[in-house]
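Tokens as discussed.
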């Protein structure tokens, strides 16, 4: 692997960020500095931490950044559910993007386990 860009989990995380931005365009203007801002920051944190951890010269740092990425993903999942509960997004949109996030979650956890075993 030459770069973090080769990681499928990073690629899927980038697609999730794009979808979050498209979804949040439709949120009420009153949420611009609240939920919209928060979910965007959380989603951006996900691939950013995967990339930053990859660039570290320490396996322990890499694992720590992947765990931070997991935390950001859990934030995104929670914020998506809030959007759904407030009826800002439909059940179909929620289910689709939530399933994407669960796939990323499984991939991150698998990557963390793999790195821990090889360490």
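Sequence:
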């Amino acid at each position: 692997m030459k770069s973090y860009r080769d990681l499928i989990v990073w690629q899927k995380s980038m697609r999730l960020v794009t979808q979050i931005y498209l979804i949040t365009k439709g949120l009420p203007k009153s949420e611009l500095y609240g939920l919209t801002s928060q979910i965007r920051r959380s989603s951006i944190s996900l691939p950013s931490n995967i990339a930053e951890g990859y660039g570290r010269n320490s396996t322990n740092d890499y694992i720590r950044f992947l765990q931070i990425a997991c935390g950001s993903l859990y934030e995104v999942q929670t914020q998506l559910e809030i959007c759904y509960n407030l009826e800002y997004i439909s059940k179909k949109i929620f289910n689709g993007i939530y399933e994407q996030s669960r796939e990323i979650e499984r991939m991150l956890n698998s990557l963390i386990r793999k790195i821990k075993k090889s360490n």
